[in-house]
Sequence to fold (765 residues):
Amino acid sequence: MKIFKYFLVAILFVSASTSAQNEIEPVRKPGHTNQNKFKQLYDEFATPNMFRTGSGAPGPAYYQQQADYKMDIEIDDVNARLYGDETITYTNNSPDELKYLWVQLDQNMRAKDSKTPLINSTGIGPATSASRATSTYLKERFDGGFNIEHVKDVNGKDLPHTINRTMMRVELPKAMKTGDKFSFSIKWWYNINDHVKDGGRSGYEYFEENDNRIYVMAQFYPRMAVYNDVEGWQNSQFWGRDEFALPFGDFDVNITVPADHILDGTGYLTNREDVFTKEMMKRYKKAKKSFDKPVMIVNEEEARKTEKTKSKDKKTWKLSAQMVRDFGFATSRKFIWDMMAVKIGDRDVMAVSMYSKEGNPLWEQWSTRTVASTLKSYSRMTFDYPYHKAISVHAPMGMEYPMICYNFGRPDKDGNYSDRTKYGMISVIIHEVGHNFFPMIVNSDERQWTWMDEGLNTFVQYVAEQDFGEWNPTALSTEHAKYPSRRGPAKNIVRYMGGNQDYIAPIMTKGINTYQFGSNAYSKPATGLNILRETIMGRDLFDYSFREYANRWMFKHPTPEDFFRTMEDASAVDLDWFWRGWFYTTDYTDIGIKEVKKYAVTSNPNENGRKLAERYNMNPSDLVYFIGEGDEGYDDALNSNVAIEELPTVKEYIMDNFTPEQQKTMKKSPKYFYQVTFDKPGGLVMPLIVQYEYADGSKEKVTYPAQIWRYNDKEVSRAVASDKEIVAITVDPDLETADIDTTNNSWPREAKESDFNKFKNKVKN
Fold:
């Protein structure tokens, strides 16, 4: 009977604070829908089906289309013009009948009649530079759109087609049924843009010194659009920012350029012995066995000599690639070319760099080594890199394609460079090489969901940067003990998260419609994944689930729901609250300490205790009393320094209900009691990470799961019993949650900044 009595006492203590409220007539409020932050995402997610399952995996009816290309390309180096002739073989693997095909004409963004320049608001300021005034008001617009000479079937018959800006609809002679193949050809040409002056993801950089160009070519051919189970044809127009959605296929590409050019690109070089000199072949074979340092295929001295003259002859480079979604290449007579092998699983992969003398000594020292390090890190986090090479090309921009990417980072004319230039170059190489994994292999829809490739890739980039710093300590300057990553740590996103809500959009927004594109599509999703890995899930659970997603969807087309569902399916961690807050809203983290109240313990009945005992017909001497600081009897109880186990009532209970062996293993008796109330001015749910500091100098960190906020999204309390006096409490001591205001994170409150300065800084940011 005594066990039951003390169980009842415990219940009374829990319910006493609310009993009085229950006796008051409740306030009648209108009903409401479920607004709980932990509500499941059934309303936001697409319904699982035979194509995509509720677990986040491809379903038994999943399909994807295939587009194979055979191309002949020629670059006219005198007029900076590209000519092309391609045959596309399209396979309909869908269960749907197709009456027409959609082809992407991305170069039409640069056509003279393009609408892209007209979608942004413009104005006239009080002053501007002469160059800007000239380019804005006087310069004739560059005409870089596709010139389509014909669209024909395999019999040479013209196919009806309609060009709608950056999309072309090709009418089929008869509808394609499931399993049908259809081949057709397109012939075209266009003027290649100077991407340094006019911008763009491809084009040429001009060097006046010797009248030379470096060509970094992409989006240079009409490309098939994606058709899938999610939205049918992905034929959203290309306005210049949102990147690409493309089907997988096989490519056979012949590229004709001046005979003194060096060229590489997507796929295997199938006529290497025809385009390499004997010395280049000898060096190439050596590079295939060099795992510790790059081997020069074309060195700087040779490149300097070649760029001084121009060959009038031509040479054709032949490249073949299987199961890729796109194709890119780079060519120039200015190129230095080095390679080294890197072991990925049981395969040897070639890490490759192509750069001009303007990139040295920085590029020769770090580019290929960075490629090799990146492949190792990404393979560890996802799957073994499946292609045979990865190329880094020196260009004043950053952009990615299967097996090849274009990266900035250039010393001054004397070859000097700062840490900022070096780390900037290494980081962009890691990022662009990493895009081989997202989205070149895990093939998400960049046109709609920018974050699925940029955000996921930026997250793994952060991991790879830290690996690079650890594996290449000589790359770190004396100022940096670790690699100085710009994106990834939670503290680095605080300024954006706490900014003006009028200029922040949820991550789940089409890329072209977002404010602060870099923060929205790159930084915030990457930081969110880092918080999941380090704080919410832990590395083991996160890494397993992330690899599962990557392996499920390699060489396929995932959606956001596929990612969200897989992460939960593989980890048994309910993350709907996190996806909703971090991805579907612009809520921010702000968690603080509202109040800390101290208590002392005693057996002496107080007024509230006597009333409680009377209400439940209990003996007041059977209760344990907690007296709050400032209440009558608090000082006496505190000064008595009596531990809870020393109270007669507790002693009796322990002796009656615990064996001697159990009593020996009981926790050391607490003498100090606190009720800590935490509030959450910010809307974002996060785990409550609390550090308790004791009078003896020791510290203890406790992480209360995010679910602590499930009943009250504004504030929660924790009762803390300790055998040591608590002298300080800090919320999120290691800045793990992107808390935008840390002035309310500590007790006793620290005057970190005045309210006026705090307000001023928030406005400024």
Notes: The two ends are 64 Å apart (CA to CA).
